[in-house]
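chain below, 377 aa
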Amino acid sequence: MKRILIFLPVILLLASCASYTVYPVKSRPTIHPKGGMLYALPKTKVCVSVTFNKRNYEAAPYAEFAAEMLGLDKTDVTSPYSIESVSIDGVNEADPNLYYFIYPRRLSVNIDSRHLLRSVGVNHDDYEEFESYTERRGRATSDEEPDVAEYNMYDRADTFYVRGDKVGKPSLVTTKKDSRSLRQRATAAAQRLEDIQTKRQQLLYGDYEGDYSPETLKYLADRLAEQENTILEQFVGRTTSETVRFYVDPKTDRASLDSQTVVLFAFSPKLGLRTGDAIQKGMDTVYCNLHSENTLRNATRFVKQSTKGSRKNDNAGSRRTFKYRQAETVHVSVYWKDYLFETDVRIAQFGPIVDLPKHKFEAIFDRHTGDLIYYKN
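prediction:
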């Protein structure tokens, strides 16, 4: 009886020291854990954002005269699509195969909306709330054109409306519709455009007649620019932009670890963007290549072969440790024909899974890469 009384305080002391427990969700613990929370290790997808430009000629009645009267290239009319810019970034999400259950007890654990660790053992008051990942993922800019009144400044009639008139059916028309041919109207528009550009040059170099204040000169320049843009749109159309995001899920098998290439899409200045079965002959294929130097190869080998808790999914040692991923730097390039854009991206699943120490600690993880950026005993 005395021995039981002696060992009872020791057991209670050891139980109080067990501040937290971590279980891989694929494990089958012998003791059912109490309520807790879930977190996952990060998995990185490469996001390639491509901004496409499309020139709309529906509101350009003088497009066929643009090359003749404005000196523009004829291919601008027959090739309305173009690529404006390309950007590459890494986007982290929860790895569905690497979830862990935490029984935190008195431990402070911060997990973001993606189920990824933000911090362990510290308050997160100094960090801003993480932007909702689900709202940002896959979002592209709107492809809807702004509501702009379209009209032909040479093909109109001055009208008066009175009470009771319906829209488009005025009671009094004071002028007749312009009867000039399309070429004649295009010639007049081109001449008007030249006059506006001449006035803008005069304002720029101080040759404009009259003594105006700087504010007045700026106002005149802005109005002339608006008139110039309105006439230009009747020749070259209106340009709209749309950003499309393509996601590449890197393969982690040994054959693909050093280098892997995937097809993103096909593009043609005449046909625009095509993917999958819609790709046609003669279009330029756009590729994305991932090349890794495997700078963490030795570190990964050491973690797998030498550290405890990494050999089994569930044992006494691994249940007392938090896991995190050390991301590997990968060179990513997007290319087609004569174009090449490249940058470095941190890929989480290319690096090793590391156990944090068992004792009490403070740790903060980078919200973009998942890397450990702060640690304190």
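The two ends are 40 Å apart (CA to CA). The first strand starts at residue 21 and ends at 24.
thats it, cya
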